[in-house]
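Two entries, shown back to back:
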Amino acid sequence: MKRTTTIAGPHAIALAGAALAVFAAAPAGACGEGQFNMGQGLGYQAYLAPIPATVLVLAPDGDRAARRDLYQGLERAGHRVTLVDDEQALRQALAGGHFDVVIAGFDRVEALDGQAAGLRSTGLIPVVPRAARRDPRLRADFAAFLLDNASLGQYLRAINTQMHVAAR
């Protein structure tokens, strides 16, 4: 014997109304929650530096072209970037202008004799090999440092840290 149940009367109308309300309602979102539309491109908002800096970069040997996107990203963020390829060009740039931040390989800066101490006071951000990242002198001597092949975000964070330290 097969038994069937039917909903009739006011219960049927209430159930139909509830089902209609559930299926016809717009998706709910929590406070601050963004809704993604599937199949459409996502927007990208560029990072803008809170304190734009004049940055002098001593490009690693043979690395200028490979890191071009990184240097352009620094400029898009609002920093003024000057690239030099060797220590002589670094000396000339330092003698001819003011830079808030100097980014250079730590070993190459130490080779500049007496200028290395002066660079520390202008905001040197050394680039160090990954093997040296745990050296306690780095954290003691510098507000920020970068590892080899650091990303654009890491460069921006290091420059921002250095600019906040200089503003104190």
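entry 2 starts here
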Amino acid sequence: MADFRAQSDFKDFMLKNEITVSLVANSVSVGNVGGGEDTLKTLTIPRLTLYKDGVYGHGVAWGKFAANANSKRVKVKTGSVTLLDSGAGAFNGQSWDVEFWLMRSGDSAAEGLFLFRSGATSVRAYPSTVHDFGSDIGIVVTGEGVATDDVIAKAATLDATGAK
């Protein structure tokens, strides 16, 4: 896939006309390795994409938990800040997804809605975050389990929608 930032005229036109632009599509499965927290997917909102208030990024990642009684969890982070934590649970053999919207709300501020869903479990978070919009914003999905592949991320997508 071509570097999205190299197509800045096209991106600017699309965003300024409130058209959604696809930024990332990743369908490579990645699982956690042993105990502890591991990065499963990284979704990058390119610098200057959230160029004015009201422009937002929307991302989705999904996967599957191993069919066992091990404790498992999914988190979404930017830098060292945890934006969403599923909480620990067995999630025995269940599918999962995380979905988020991150909207610029000031010169260095953004408001978010982050969702985790798996079976009967649903977790929501509404973080206010601080960003340098002149730099890339990395959104990282992590998985934590007891054994390798307790948490597998199958795919992820990220897009941005402009504002007039």
